[in-house]
């Protein structure tokens, strides 16, 4: 395969429009897979894990029709050269096998056929889909035949030997959340998690309970009654509340009741729908921290909403990367057999 020299380490050489920006904010990327730059990795892709906010929006727009979901994904990739939802701006990640490695990356010790999971967003990843084989709407995964590019700066994880590939992909898709939770939670903290019954929320709940310790308290909000009960059964939360995170005042009152008015030291937002910023902000104590992992978060609503309600809280954007995040997340599944069993029943 022809290799082109002098590729930009961040992939700007693949940006078609507008010129001069990096791949994530770019509107369109070059997804020609017939040649690669000498600092790129070409992969044969078999599965896309579309991020929850993006898949939820596409599924809602398609009315749940699988054929329309397929058409929407194919249209986005054909138009943009990457899987970046034009409404949410987010992407997801992929699983595949190494097809070719650029000469400048020979020290990566990757060989054709090695299984990898990307740890960078599909919203910045050149992607070409030849065929969508299957859509799995319940778990936000799409089985495809296609190819993708990882840039020199792109991070990835080799598929672990002790976990099923679909399970590893699902967990690694949100690995930034539990890793950041592990950094943020202190012993004795009261932690509120919105979206605690979802994929990232359950992983965060495990880390929060572990780090807060016996003097801490973890309150999980979620819509799914069966999974809410599971949170308590698996010891992931001290309290499980069934209430919509879009109901800011209702959530505020519930947290105030459960904490005796003290509110939360840390609030983690893992919800995949818009308009949950104020429930998070109001549930946090003065001087506390709100961690917005949700890709449905509006910076404007969060910043101006906090100002409008006089809330002096530190707000953190959910960086998808945290040092050691992949291993931290996979270890959650290794350490918590009930959670692993639940995930394995979902991500087959």
In summary, what is this structure?
The protein has 348 residues and is an alpha/beta fold. Helix content is 33%, strand content 25%.
How are the secondary structure elements laid out?
Layout lengths: L2 E2 L10 E3 L10 E2 L6 E2 L3 E10 L1 H10 L4 H15 L11 E10 L13 E4 L8 E10 L4 E10 L5 E3 L6 H9 L2 H9 L5 E5 L4 H14 L4 E5 L3 H9 L5 E3 L6 H12 L4 E6 L7 H6 L1 E9 L6 H10 L5 E4 L7 H11 L1 H10 L2
Parallel strand pairs: 1-4, 11-12, 11-14, 12-13, 14-15, 15-16
Antiparallel strand pairs: 2-3, 5-6, 5-9, 6-7, 7-10, 8-9
Helix pairs in contact: 4-5, 4-10
Keywords:
16 strands; 2 domains; single chain; 11 helices; 348 residues; 6-stranded parallel beta sheet; 6-stranded antiparallel beta sheet; alpha/beta; 33% helix; Quinone Oxidoreductase, Chain A, domain 1
């Amino acid at each position: 395969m022809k290799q082109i020299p002098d590729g930009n380490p961040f992939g700007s050489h693949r940006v078609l429009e507008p010129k001069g920006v990096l791949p994530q904010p770019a509107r369109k990327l070059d997804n020609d897979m017939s040649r690669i730059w000498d600092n790129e990795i070409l992969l044969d892709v078999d599965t896309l894990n579309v991020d929850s906010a993006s898949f939820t929006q596409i599924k809602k727009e398609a009315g749940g029709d699988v054929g329309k979901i397929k058409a929407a994904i194919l249209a986005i990739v054909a138009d943009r050269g990457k899987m970046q939802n034009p409404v949410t701006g987010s992407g997801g990640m992929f699983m595949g096998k190494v097809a070719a490695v650029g000469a400048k990356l020979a020290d990566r010790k990757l060989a054709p056929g090695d299984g990898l999971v990307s740890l960078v967003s599909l919203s910045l990843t050149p992607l070409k889909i030849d065929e969508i084989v299957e859509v799995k709407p319940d778990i936000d995964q799409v089985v495809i035949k296609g190819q993708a590019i990882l840039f020199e700066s792109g991070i990835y994880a080799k598929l672990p030997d002790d976990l099923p590939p679909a399970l590893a992909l699902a967990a690694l898709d949100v690995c930034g959340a539990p890793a950041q939770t592990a950094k943020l939670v202190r012993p004795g903290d009261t932690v509120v998690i919105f979206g605690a019954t979802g994929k990232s929320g359950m992983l965060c709940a495990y880390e929060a309970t572990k780090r807060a310790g016996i003097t801490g308290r973890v309150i999980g909000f979620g819509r799914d009654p069966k999974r809410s009960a599971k949170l308590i059964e698996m010891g992931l939360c001290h309290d499980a509340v069934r209430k919509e995170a879009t109901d800011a005042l209702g959530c505020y009152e519930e947290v105030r009741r459960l904490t005796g008015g003290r509110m939360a030291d840390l609030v983690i937002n893992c919800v995949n729908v818009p308009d949950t910023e104020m429930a998070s902000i109001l549930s946090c104590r003065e001087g506390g921290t709100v961690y917005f992992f949700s890709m449905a978060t509006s910076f404007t609503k969060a910043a101006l909403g906090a100002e409008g309600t006089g809330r002096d809280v530190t707000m953190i954007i959910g960086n998808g990367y945290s040092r050691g995040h992949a291993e931290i997340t996979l270890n959650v599944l290794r350490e918590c057999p009930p959670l692993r069993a639940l995930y394995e029943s979902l991500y087959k």
